[in-house]
UniProtKB/TrEMBL annotation:
Family: Belongs to the LysR transcriptional regulatory family.
This protein's record includes keyword Lipoprotein: no
Organism ancestry: Bacteria, Bacillati, Bacillota, Bacilli, Bacillales
One GO CC term on file: cytosol
Residue intervals of the HTH lysR-type domain: 1-58
Protein name, as recorded: LysR family transcriptional regulator
Entry keyword set: DNA-binding, Transcription, Transcription regulation
Length: 297
């Protein structure tokens, strides 16, 4: 048995599919099936119940899976620590960025980082804030950018931006001539929201509840520009961060929201009590310096 046997077993378990695991690992399905068979022969127990339509762990498989994840984590930590010991300015980083945040703040930073560290590869994954938290907690991402608050007992955080959430309405809307509006005045409007992966989804719903109504949500999306186009097409109204509102088309009007006002605070987070690789530490330090310069901290 070697570490690859366990890693292949973990991947099949997570994805509940031999074919999907093979595709994700860039190997053939016969190869991964053979590796799992070899592991079962060596351990002397079946790991998967192959009589069912979906891939399911046996009782023995569940025990092995729990221990395999511990071993895999220890192996990854060992690799990262050896990189640090040898002071190798190379490696890889897995970073989670919400789509609307990544395009606003990070292209220049990532470009400058690559100039300084050309041998460090960066894998960017676009998820909403809640999904990023989960992936960092599980160890599938090293760092990520999210909307605060987060669980401070689980994550370290570095806050770098705080701004208002504004109302976006069609330019022909009856409220378009106003500069600000009470949230309660929107109780009869149709809302277009970011989907449930995004922290703003629940924040907007809870803010509407504070104003005394449940928003009528007619559509959800993960793409801020698409939401803007739906608003300009008079399908509904949206609540979006100030920095994004500045990039919307002239077919919409943007108003400040009061009673209650809504804001978001952005932060980079990483898991407490988890080893960060040299590459991840360098990216974190570099990014903090760049953001501090930008916001003159």
């Amino acid at each position: 048995m070697d570490i690859k046997h366990l890693q292949y077993f973990i991947e099949v378990t997570k994805l509940k599919s031999f074919s999907k695991a093979a595709e994700h690992l860039f190997i053939t399905q016969p190869t991964i099936s053979k590796m799992i068979r070899n592991l079962e022969d060596e351990l002397g127990v079946p790991l998967f119940d192959r009589t069912k339509k979906t891939v399911e762990l046996t009782d023995a498989g569940r025990i092995i899976f729990d221990q395999a994840t511990v071993i895999d984590k220890a192996f990854k930590d060992l690799r990262f620590q050896l990189d640090n010991l040898l002071e190798l300015k190379k490696g890889s980083i897995r970073i989670g960025l919400p789509p609307m945040i990544g395009s606003l703040y990070f292209p220049d930073i990532i470009g400058r980082f690559h100039e300084h560290y050309p041998d460090i590869s960066i894998q960017l994954v676009e998820y909403g804030s809640k999904r990023i938290e989960d992936e960092i907690d599980k160890g599938d991402l090293d760092l990520g950018v999210v909307v605060l608050p987060v669980n401070n007992s689980v994550f370290h955080s570095f806050s770098f931006e705080k701004e208002n959430i504004q109302l976006v309405i069609p330019s022909s809307h009856r409220f378009a001539s106003l500069s600000s509006i009470d949230l309660e005045s929107l109780k009869d409007e149709n809302f277009i929201l970011f989907n449930e992966d995004f922290a703003l989804h629940n924040r907007i719903i809870s803010s509407c509840a504070m104003a005394g109504f449940q928003p009528n949500i007619i559509s959800e999306s993960s793409q801020w520009d698409f939401i803007g186009k739906m608003v300009s097409s008079r399908l509904g109204v949206a609540l979006m961060p100030e920095s994004i509102c500045k990039d919307l088309t002239s077919d919409v009007s943007v108003l400040n929201v009061t009673s209650p006002s809504i804001y978001w605070e952005l932060a980079i987070i990483w898991r407490k009590n988890k080893y960060l690789s040299y590459a991840a530490k360098e990216w974190l330090t570099f990014t903090q310096e760049q953001l501090n310069k930008k916001y003159r901290r």
